[in-house]
Amino acid sequence: MMDKWLRNTNVVKVIALMLGILLWAVVHLDSKSTTGGGFSAAEEKEIYNVKVTPVFDGNKLHIESMDPTEVMIRVQGKEAALKKIAATPYQIVLDLTNARVGENTVSLVAKDFPSGVKVSIFPPYARVALEEKQMKEVPVQVDLIGNPANGFKAGQPVAKPGRVILTVPSGLMDEAITVKAEVNVDNAQSAVTKQVKLVALDKNGKELNVSISPPVVDVEVPITQPFKKMPLQLKIVGEPAPGYSVSVFQSSIDQITVYGPQELLNTLDFYEGPPIDLNGLKENKDFTLDIPLKPRITLLDPTKVEVKVQIVPSDKKTLEQVPITIIGQNNNFDTKIKTPQGGTLNITVEGSPATLAKLKAQDIQAIVDVSNLPPGEHTVNVNLNLPQFVKKVEQDTKAVVEITAK
């Protein structure tokens, strides 16, 4: 039966056709599985300038130098695997976990590449020099940017804390390092308070990549108007009751700080305080008074003054041969005192016993003014300059002066 079929040419043609179709199918399927099913030969490509990532304890060690910092890698694998590399956060790692301070040569390791990818690194190792980190305490320097508003000035800035700790490579321990905080005070009219990030700079002003603890500080910059410290002058008004004098006049302050425009401060040599009224006093009195704020003056420090006044019964004392001084003389004339003879006066004064006990003739000035007087004899008043809280007992204090041409 089989022989009969094989002798039939039509049957043989059908069988040959079927065998051809089967052979084509086998070859075609094998080709598809080889190209599309992942059984093709491995491909490779090169990637340049891949950064080397060091892994180490940055709190204890510092990389002084590392060579190379970038490498070339050759990746091998199937096409599908290689395509995944672009979307993969791969790394070329320099593991310094077991490295020591000083020079080290450490093999580079490829990490986080897609599975099925073989990686070759050129060069396969890196040379690295490690330094030990140490701690160094440095003061914080505050730099002010800009200028306060017109008429105001910036005071001394205060940083809290005022000193910080740097963790630096041992090679920088003896170097001059400045830690700065910058604060903008442009157009400020009141105190500026800010939190400021610190930067560390070397002696050339280049920023250093070092650890600063704390990295941020609080800075306060006082903003005030210009000020000037000057004597406080108290104006005495009136006198104690007849027969009484001031024994003690004690002010709680003698200097005051005055704030205001600089051009006004330049004109002030002292600041006039409140009047102290002694009129008719017969006993001790304490004053607590506000210091008046004058026009254009913005602030006073302090703002009050306390005055202690002690009143005692008066005493009298005569000072003999107090010399008379002539003022206002014309250089073309000779001026002399005819009376009192000798050009001196005996002057009786009144004051507290304690004040008079220390009073001497040289503490009193007796002055005659001959300004604009023509030649001849003239009777003129003698003006007395007496210490505070000492007064003249009523008496005739006149002098006769003679003016003659030279």
What does this structure look like?
The protein contains five helices and 31 strands. The chain has helices at 2-6, 9-35, 79-83, 262-265, 353-358, and strands at residues 43-55, 61-67, 70-77, 91-95, 102-111, 118-122, 125-145, 153-154, 158-160, 163-169, 178-184, 192-197, 199-201, 211-213, 216-221, 223-224, 227-237, 244-251, 255-259, 271-277, 285-290, 299-301, 304-313, 315-327, 333-339, 344-351, 365-369, 376-381, 383-385, 391-392, 398-405. β4 (91-95) and β5 form a beta hairpin. The chain has four domains: 43-132, RNA Polymerase Alpha Subunit, Chain A, domain 2 (Beta Complex); 133-224, RNA Polymerase Alpha Subunit, Chain A, domain 2, CATH 2.170.120; 227-313, RNA Polymerase Alpha Subunit, Chain A, domain 2; 316-405, RNA Polymerase Alpha Subunit, Chain A, domain 2 (Beta Complex), CATH 2.170.120.30. It is mostly beta strands. The strands form seven sheets. Strands 1, 2, 3, 4, 5, 6, 7, 10, 11, 13 and 14 form an eleven-stranded mixed β-sheet that branches. It has a five-stranded mixed β-sheet with strand order 29-27-24-26-30.
Using brief descriptors, characterize the structure shown:
mainly beta; 11-stranded mixed sheet; 406 residues; 5 helices; RNA Polymerase Alpha Subunit, Chain A, domain 2; 5-stranded mixed sheet
